[in-house]
Amino acid sequence: MTDHRTASTAPVSPISGCGTVSRRKLLRAAAAAGAIVPFALPGGRALAQGAAPRRLKLAWSQTAVCQSPISVALKRDFFGKYGLEVEHIQFSGPTDQLLEAIATGHADGGIGMALRWLKPLEQGFDVRLAVGTHGGCMRLLAPASSGIAKVADLRGKTVAVTDQASPVKNYFAIRLAKEGIDPDQVDWRQYPGDLFAEVVKKGEVQAAAIEDPHAWFLRERDGLTEIATNLDGDDAARTCCVLGIRGSLLRDEPAVAASLARAFIDAQHWTAANPAETAQIFAPFVPGNVRPEDVEAILRSHTHQHASTGAHLRAELAAFTEDLKLIRVIRPGTDAAEFAKVIAPDVLA
User: Fold this and answer.
1) DSSP 3-state assignment of 113?
2) CB of 316 within 8 A of CB of 278?
């Protein structure tokens, strides 16, 4: 991995020595910074009017409904509005591989889950986080007969996850830790997402922790009960997914990075305001038999109006960083606030 070290966008080295900050304080700071970024964003970075469109490669997953604002940006030319010509690259691998693709220049940007990306960013991946795109795509599900009615009831149970570093597993492990329950008291068992319904039916697991759209279909088609989501309590106004931009793009062409962020924010807000039309735009991209009305229902359960940037995004990421310390994913000596400053610079400044 190339070492591009400059000021606030340099790869992250271990940051220590400033202790911890309470998650509640970090979330209050996020709220004070403002939860919504409006259309027609101000800011000093913009591409010159009349210039040839800047071509970029954007990685996205056509199976991830929460990435449907990308299809909106393509269809309604939000990218063109900001002087960009975007080639979309279908990406079907896990989001840690997507992060590597961005860091190594195979893509200029893409959307991934913060709880998946923060550890490799701590280790130095040259990607910067520009926009918190939305919340709401992580769910804990169980059959009504499981005896599981709340997250704490997972103690001593077996839970299906897609992998042991799953951001959904991490999220619910954090929820357990905050209730004083060691997440290791849960048997987190790995299965492919399309087998979750079967292993629940067979009784191999008592619950499933997975992201949309699989989670939504497990609830709606397979009759599982939703026990919790990542929009519960204090998390109701927090992002789960983020737009990552190649670090060298931000350093070398900050106006291009800002334009990409603005296009995404416009698309997020348009999606939130027009979920039915968004579903019609996105559904043709999805392989298999997925109806637009299903896509719309999933979108309505998310918070695509979120679109956090700047200080608000940094506060969210710092809170996530403190959370991940609880389950020993992030090093205890990493200063969450300083780490967030490095990985989430003011792209729109």
Assistant:
1) strand
2) no
Crossing angle between the packed helical segments 336-343 and 114-122, to the nearest 10 degrees: 100
Q: In 3D, which of 124, 138, 94 has the Cα closest to residue 112? A: 94
- DSSP strand pairing (225-229 vs 84-90): unpaired
Q: What is the pLDDT of residue 163?
A: 94
Burial class (CB in 10 A: 0-12, 13-18, 19+), 189: middle
Q: What is the pLDDT of residue 330?
A: 98
Q: Single out the residue of 206, 195, 201, 226 nearest to residue 156, CA to CA.
A: 206
Opening angle at CA 195, ends 148 and 221, nearest 5:
65
Residue 92 class from Cβ within 10 Å (0-12 exposed, 13-18 middle, 19+ buried)? exposed
Q: Residue 63 has what pLDDT?
A: 82
CB of 207 closer than 8 Å to CB of 160: yes
Instruction: Report residue 251 as tokens.
Output: 């350093």
**What pTM was computed for the model?**
0.85
Residue located via tokens 């959904």 = 168
Integer Cα distance of 147 and 60 in angstroms: 38
Write out the DSSP string of 117-150: HHHHHHTT-SEEEEEEEE---EEEEE-GGG---S
Q: Tell me: the pLDDT tens digits for 68-86? A: 999 999 999 999 999 999 9
Strand-pair partners of 139:
210, 229
CA 196 to chain centre: 22
Give the residue ranges of the chain where pLDDT is below 50: 1-42
* pLDDT score, position 49: 61
| Residue corresponding to tokens 């009017």 | 49
